[in-house]
Design goal:
With 201 residues, this protein is an alpha/beta fold. Helices cover 39% and strands 13% of the residues. Strand 2, helix 3 and strand 3 form a beta-alpha-beta unit. The chain is globular and about 45 Å long. It starts with a helix and ends in a 12-residue tail after the last helix.
């Protein structure tokens, strides 16, 4: 359940970010506490955001903890005004509220990914060194993208080969396609919902 205080905080945060109303919002969480081997390159996040804005008129919220504010700022700078950076502005207690207001959430294998699935938000998870059979969200409203290499899964915090290909080879076009598909699926399943995030799935 999303506490009332967390929901109120989320609504205020989105209003301040200029993302109030019923239009779909895509959330991304680019960081990972476990290590940078689980992260998608920031320039690919920026390209994804630009693509979703240009081709689908979708708005994006870039999230993260205080230690990820610089990474979020880099991604937003590369997104050329198509995203809002709220990294460091929420907390563990308010995170469920913010996630519940999203239409789709995109991230690597992170804690927020699993919180998003628990509050009923469709997710696109990008897996590299870890195993989606162990930790990916389950169900038709959760999509997993993975590049399987000879070394997969290695479970390393940093890529021992130095090339990070299992994540870097995932394309923004593929992620954008999964985001679009989930939005269409939820719209079809719940056409009366003014906002898709937070509806029971």
């Amino acid at each position: 359940p999303v506490p009332a205080a967390a929901a109120a905080f989320a609504d205020q945060l989105l209003r301040e970010a200029g993302l109030g109303g019923s239009a779909p919002i895509v959330g991304i969480h680019p960081g990972a506490f476990y290590g940078d081997a689980k992260t998608w390159p920031p320039q690919l996040f920026s390209e994804l955001i630009r693509k979703l804005a240009r081709e689908d008129d979708l708005r994006t919220l870039v999230m993260g903890g205080p230690g990820e504010a610089a990474l979020a700022a880099e991604i937003c700078a590369g997104a050329e005004g198509a995203a809002v950076n709220v990294a460091g502005r929420d907390s563990l207690s308010t995170l469920p509220g913010v996630l519940s207001r999203l239409s789709v959430f995109v991230s690597g294998d992170t804690g927020p990914l699993h919180v998003a699935s628990l509050v009923g938000v469709p997710t696109v998870s990008l897996f590299g060194p870890t195993d989606p059979l162990r930790t990916a969200p389950r169900g038709p409203h959760h999509s997993t993208i993975r590049r399987v290499l000879d070394c997969s899964p290695c479970f390393a915090r940093t890529c021992p080969l130095g090339h990070h290909r299992c994540m870097a080879d995932i394309s923004p076009e593929e992620v954008a396609g999964e985001v679009r598909g989930l939005i269409r699926m939820v719209r079809k399943a719940a056409p009366s919902e003014s906002r898709m995030g937070g509806s029971p799935l």
